[in-house]
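debug: dumping io for the single-chain case to check the tokenizer round-trip. Nothing else runs in this session.
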Amino acid sequence: MTPVRVVRPRVSYTDLQQAPEDGRRYELYDGEAFVVPAPIPRHQLAVQNLEDRFRTYQRSYGGLVLISPIDIVFSEFDVVQPDVVFFSRDRSHLVDPDRAIRDAPDLAVEVLSPSTAATDRGKKMQMLARYGVPEYWLVDALARTVEIYRLSAEAYVLEQITSEGDIARSAILPNLSFPAREIFGDW
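debug: decoded output
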């Protein structure tokens, strides 16, 4: 006798949109839904400081910075919510303020949390590379480091690891640089 295999139905972005609001955030990886837990204050403080740095860049050089929760819909079955995304001046027109984002940002940032770090370094990183996000940052607010990855062919290559005393520099956005300690504050 053949063993019975439990088959989970694939969840689509349309399914998420039609589901009753339950206060949770979801990401889809090939139709498998993952709940994204609410972050702790250290995480949110780092996100706020990153947003400030990207807004400063946006004011000087154009572009568009957005913070989570915001869906990036790569396909009906691949949807992520990076903590920070940035669209360059030349590509910011791809964001319609009244619709879900269906184009890859130029840069995506994840602030690591214990509950999501494995996904951020694994499935999410692979998905962002597959859909052509040119740059990906992993920020560890506890270790106070920033890893900056640049897309090369179909995988990310580590460009830079910074700690508090270093300058974080974008690999693809000219003039985007700031002391890494500005992300972490005094906490």
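debug: round-trip ok. The longest strand covers residues 155-163.
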